[in-house]
UniProtKB/TrEMBL annotation:
Phylogenetic lineage: Bacteria, Pseudomonadati, Bacteroidota, Cytophagia, Cytophagales
Reaction(s) the record says it catalyses: (S)-malate + NAD(+) = oxaloacetate + NADH + H(+)
Residues spanning the signal sequence: none
UniProt keyword list: NAD, Oxidoreductase, Tricarboxylic acid cycle
Organism: Aureibacter tunicatorum
Record-listed NAD(+) binding positions: 8-13, 33, 96, 119-121
Gene assigned in the entry: mdh
Protein name from the UniProt record: Malate dehydrogenase
One Pfam family here: Ldh_1_N
GO MF assignments: L-lactate dehydrogenase (NAD+) activity; L-malate dehydrogenase (NAD+) activity
Enzyme's top EC category: oxidoreductase
Length: 309
């Protein structure tokens, strides 16, 4: 029996709950929101879809009553403001830090053994906030960004090469901001290094588009994305619940890996029933390491804002 709580029943949270339900990743999904009746409504709508899409995951909604979330195996936190055009993710820190703090306090009261996946932005620093509040080990508090950013990179490549996105393997590191580090040297298409299939200028343009991929959608829609972020969050929960040992880029506290200490950054990890089961250390070249360090600097600046709040 696997139980997943999703806090925040807005665009990302409701999408994650829907994917968890229709793909039968969990037996029970509890959606929580602060808006009266909102989570109950979304949960009921997802449940009413079950006879059409044929799944039996129970979906439960709750307005801020965390007793319904008791003994969750995984908790996905999406509560908080999304950005509007013209904003950076970091602009959300003052509002979202308070929300993530209070939600985490409620979550751990009822699910002291849960593994927590943060989605709220600014992602790396909100993961830090959840860690400070929960005092959970770093293996059990992580952030979702790398799967999404890598998916954008893969989708752009699949389009440019006119191949299936299924055949693209890639890894992306760093913070979930415009300093993220896509790694063409670790990108293959059906086992073939991507550099043998695409010219440098096109590849560089795709790397740049990936870095600002979230902003591209905010500009188009007036709010941020949800289908890919919701699916990516559910995919992380699935890896944990089913002990799949998937290799994904995940935001985690680094404690000396890559020569970086006490900073939250996206790196490739093995994800299984214990959460982050291993951090994979790639042998980055000088240029790649320089990009990772500049991403670290950007994240640290926002971590400092939180420390000084
Ligand atoms: N890590 C990532 O890659 C991504 C992160 N995000 C972030 O996820 C967050 C949510 O985005 P959306 O779902 O689009 O926003 P949304 O506005 O559609 O939903 C957020 C929900 O959180 C709820 N909420 C606010 N305070 C709460 C509290 N204290 N307790 C429970 N619920 C509360 C709101 O009532 C709202 O329903 C944003 O911070 C956004 O920036 C969005 C996409 C990707
Ligand atoms: O761009 C945003 O604000 C939301 C987000 O993190 C993303 O879609 O990558």
């Amino acid at each position: 029996m696997a139980k997943v709580t999703v806090v925040g029943a807005g665009n990302v949270g409701a999408t994650a709950a829907d994917v968890l339900a229709y793909r039968e990743i969990a037996n029970e999904v509890v959606l929580v929101d602060i808006k009266d009746g909102f989570a109950e409504g979304k949960a009921l709508d997802i449940w009413q879809k079950s006879p059409i899409n044929l799944y039996d995951t129970r979906t439960v909604g709750s307005t801020n009553d965390y007793s319904k979330t008791a003994d969750s195996d995984v908790v996905i936190i999406t509560s908080g403001l999304p950005r509007k055009p013209g904003m950076s993710r970091d602009d959300l820190i003052s509002t979202n830090a308070g929300i993530v703090k209070s939600v985490t306090e409620n979550v751990i009261k009822h699910s002291p053994e849960a593994i927590i996946i943060i989605v709220s932005n600014p992602l790396d620093v909100m993961t830090y906030q959840a860690h400070i509040t929960s005092q959970f080990p770093r293996t059990k508090v992580m952030g979702m960004a790398g799967i999404l950013d890598t998916a954008r990179y893969k989708a752009f490549l699949a389009e440019a090469l006119d191949v299936s996105p299924k055949d693209i393997q890639a890894v992306l590191m760093g913070g979930h901001g415009d300093t993220m580090v896509p790694l063409p040297r670790y990108t293959t298409v059906g086992g073939i290094p991507v550099t043998e299939l695409i010219d440098n200028d096109t590849l560089e343009a795709i790397v740049q588009r990936t870095k600002t991929g979230g902003g591209e959608l905010v500009k188009l829609m007036g709010t941020s994305a949800w289908y890919a972020p919701g699916s990516a969050s559910a995919q992380m929960a699935e890896a944990i619940i089913k002990d799949q040992k998937r290799v994904f880029p995940v935001c985690v506290k680094l404690e000396g890996e890559y020569g970086i200490d006490n900073c939250y950054l996206g790196v490739p990890v093995v994800l299984g029933k214990n959460g982050i089961e291993k951090i994979i250390e790639l042998d980055l070249n000088e240029d790649e390491m320089a990009l990772l360090k500049s991403s670290e600097k950007a994240v640290r600046e926002v971590m400092n804002v939180l420390d000084n709040k």
